[in-house]
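2024-03-11 09:14:02 INFO worker-7 job=invfold-0412 stage=load source=structure_tokens
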């Protein structure tokens, strides 16, 4: 039964899975999503090479990020809901992985803004269903006492080591040696290997057969959004996804053109975000299992303001700039919490992929689609650094909204219940 009070619903199949299988599941899902983000971040890292050749404006750069976010969001909702209906989460995950790998090649073939825009739309459609399906599998297959940590690792560890760290470092070096087109072809290869590993090593999660005679087995979107934690997660998600996509769409270009860094130096500074987020996938998500989801959801958006402030005003070495980014990017650790952990602790397992698709899809449509073009237009109108003020505003509002959350962490609720029972 869905709940707005923070009590956890009945759990899924985790009691039938050994700790070793649970570890393997999280590892492979994290690796797979890392490859997704390697492909997604490729254009951002390669933008200093792509922008002059295709003669892109700041607004067009924002639209490229928005287009992928839009199709990603639509796919996140509909593929997530489809996986709930069909009960074929593993199969859909494999098909999506193969599809986005092939779409990366199309980006390398682009000869104009419109061609590249179409390629990014297709890539977003292929990638969007990966995360809601992955989180639904973690929610049902992994011990709920480690749910926050497991979902943090599944979403953040691989995505940031591969997408936010290796993507800028490897692809910029590859583009410097060859060209940005060959770099996109390189980005297409790992997904095929990941699809094979999932096919041979993971099992299809068992799902309860729905009672089609009960209206409760269908979850209308408006009913889900009436739950307090759900709409707060959506609002925070919209703001923070906009924060994330705007950062990656414009920060590489700002560091090269605004701060005077070389593309290679920029790649290492941006790579610091990937290393930071990989560590925070353990630290923040694991900490939320212990002290609760709400404290980290409130505190870390405020801390993230240090990154844009450093980009604006710090004039020292690139190494120190990377350290400033490292501290501020702790906010990345809350993404799996508002996208997956809190919703999955609020709704029944049979609706997990639906509500996770709703959370991720809403964030991507409203934050990822509208944020970058607006920031790009503001950059065109007021200067290249304007997006940094947008980032600070998004972060501050997110922390304020998160104050309304109700706690859902099982260990924290258990500790609260013990004095009441006594």
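2024-03-11 09:14:09 INFO worker-7 stage=emit residues=422
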């Amino acid at each position: 039964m869905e709940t707005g009070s923070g009590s956890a619903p009945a759990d899924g199949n985790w009691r039938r899975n050994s700790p070793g299988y649970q570890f393997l599941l999280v590892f492979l899902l994290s690796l797979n999503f890392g490859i997704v983000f390697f492909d997604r971040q490729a254009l951002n890292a390669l933008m200093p090479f792509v922008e002059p050749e295709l003669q892109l404006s700041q607004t067009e750069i924002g639209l490229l990020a928005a287009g992928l976010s839009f199709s990603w969001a639509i796919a996140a909702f509909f593929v997530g809901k489809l996986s709930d209906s069909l009960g074929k989460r593993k199969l859909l995950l494999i098909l999506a992985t193969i599809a986005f790998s092939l779409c990366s090649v199309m980006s390398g073939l682009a000869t104009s803004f419109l061609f590249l825009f179409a390629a990014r739309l297709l890539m977003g459609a292929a990638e969007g269903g990966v995360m809601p399906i992955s989180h639904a599998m973690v929610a049902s297959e992994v011990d709920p006492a480690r749910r926050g940590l497991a979902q943090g690792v599944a979403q953040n560890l691989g995505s940031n080591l591969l997408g936010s760290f290796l993507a800028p470092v490897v692809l910029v070096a590859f583009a410097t040696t060859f060209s940005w087109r060959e770099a996109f072809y390189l980005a297409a290869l790992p997904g095929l290997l990941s699809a094979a590993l999932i096919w041979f090593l993971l099992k299809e999660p068992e799902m309860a057969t729905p009672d089609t005679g009960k209206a409760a087995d269908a979850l209308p979107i408006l009913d889900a959004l009436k739950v307090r934690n759900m709409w707060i997660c959506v609002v925070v998600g919209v703001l923070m996804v906009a924060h994330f996509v705007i950062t990656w769409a414009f920060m590489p270009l700002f560091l090269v053109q605004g701060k005077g860094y070389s593309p290679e130096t920029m790649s290492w500074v941006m790579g610091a975000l990937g290393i930071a987020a990989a560590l925070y996938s353990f630290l923040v998500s694991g900490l939320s299992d212990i002290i609760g989801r709400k404290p980290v959801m409130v505190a870390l958006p405020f801390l993230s303001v240090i990154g844009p402030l450093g980009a604006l005003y710090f004039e020292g070495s690139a190494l120190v700039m990377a350290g400033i980014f490292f501290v501020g990017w702790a906010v990345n650790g809350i993404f799996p919490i508002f996208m997956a952990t809190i919703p999955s602790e609020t709704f029944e397992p049979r609706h997990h992929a639906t509500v996770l698709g709703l959370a991720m899809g809403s964030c991507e449509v409203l934050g990822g689609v509208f944020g970058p073009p607006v920031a790009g237009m503001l950059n065109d109108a007021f200067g290249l650094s304007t997006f940094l003020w947008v980032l600070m505003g998004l972060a501050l509002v997110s922390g304020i909204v998160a104050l309304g959350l109700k706690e859902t962490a099982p260990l924290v609720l258990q500790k609260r219940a013990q004095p009441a029972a006594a």
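2024-03-11 09:14:09 INFO worker-7 stage=report msg="The domain at 18-203+216-421 is CATH 1.20.1250.20 (Growth Hormone; Chain: A;)."
2024-03-11 09:14:10 INFO worker-7 job finished
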